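anyone else get weird line breaks when pasting these?? whatever heres mine. first is seq + tokens for prot A
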Amino acid sequence: MSLAERFGASIEVSGPDPDAEAFFFVKRPDSIDHDAFVTGLLGLVGTSGRLVLHHRSGFAVVRVSHERAQRLRRLPWIDTVGGVRFDPAQFAAVTGAPVP
């Protein structure tokens, strides 16, 4: 008998809506060329507006669905994918850089 059955409880585990979009931090391995990394991301995220920013140190911030982020995690040329809170307007105000 499980703990839930013992107490007459039901347990439901669910994640975010797979189609809901969010911002994700994506990091490449050091061995992957940055330009190839960015080109690959652009091919996967669909448009340049979804590649919010990137830096030659090896990371990018993208706006994609949770389901697409899960697929990015499986790629050998991507080290890390994690959700982040990102405010494009605040970023633009601080850096002066246009953010879609």
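and prot B, same format (seq, then tokens)
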Amino acid sequence: MSNVRLDQNGVPKGPCYDPELPALHRSGVTAVDSVDPADTSGAVNTGGYQNCRFDITITGVGFTSLDVQVLFWNSRQSKWFVGSSRRLDSVGQHAVITDCRGAIIYLKVAAFAGTSFNLSADYSLS
């Protein structure tokens, strides 16, 4: 077993989470995603990890709210399925954490209320 801490008797204590450094997922997003991505290019492959944290930065004018959804790829059906979703009610920095368990995922902008916005999102796996 890799990444498992052992006690003084050699008994596993539990998983050792070694988070990856953040990486860019999306940037310069200024419009709602009207459709799901056509494929997995641009998605996050979380193979070998349990959680993914999206660090989302939003700026905007006349900002009221923005809804994001975490999409999960079903390789047998070649389709995206909606997982968790969250409404962000202010500009600034937001974190969205999802239990991904090795899936291929994508952060979708599902809805926006306001005049304009600009979104960027990093991801960090653990």
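btw re prot B: Strands lie at 4-6, 12-15, 23-29, 44-45, 51-61, 65-74, 79-88, 92-99, 104-113, 116-125. The two ends are 17 Å apart (CA to CA).
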